[in-house]
Design goal:
By secondary structure, this protein is mainly beta. Helices cover 13% and strands 35% of the residues. It is built from two helices and nine strands; from the N terminus they run ββββββαββαβ.
């Protein structure tokens, strides 16, 4: 089973999937890595984890806690996304506030709390494949 850690402040996603070590820069929240206007104050900001997307603002950083990673599956435009299911939260209010979080590649709209690896696309694809071979795994957000 894959086991990954995302450290919000260091922008680092690291761990092991299918016996392979990974260390990838990553971002979360504030429409980071979008082709549209990002909101830098929400990107990788532990104080923005309760910020849910609205018509006026993008969502904040992924909440700290433990997540189950589902195997990759096709989503919009043929990209593959990993569904994150929150198992607990170190900030309990966030559990009810934040849903539909994923690990996925960058896109037109960036993200509203999802986790986006910034490494070369080929390394991200290797991570997806390794997690699929492990039939999912765990993610710890700190």
């Amino acid at each position: 089973m894959a086991e990954l850690v995302f450290d919000i402040l260091s922008n680092r996603l690291h761990g092991v999937a299918n016996g392979v070590k990974f260390e990838i820069s990553a971002v979360s929240g504030g429409r980071a890595r979008s082709r549209n206007e990002a909101q830098p104050s929400l990107v990788n900001n532990p104080l923005s984890t309760k910020k849910k997307r609205s018509q006026y603002s993008s969502g904040g950083t992924i909440p700290r806690g433990k997540y189950r990673i589902s195997p990759a599956r096709p989503r919009v435009y043929g990209d593959r996304w990993l569904k994150l299911e929150q198992l607990n939260s170190w900030e309990l209010l966030e559990t009810a506030l934040r849903t539909d979080l994923f690990i996925h590649a960058t896109g037109i709209f960036g993200n509203d709390g999802c986790l986006l690896p910034v490494a070369p696309r080929s390394r991200f694809n290797e991570l997806l494949k390794a997690i699929e071979l492990d039939r999912g795994g765990m993610l710890y957000v700190r």
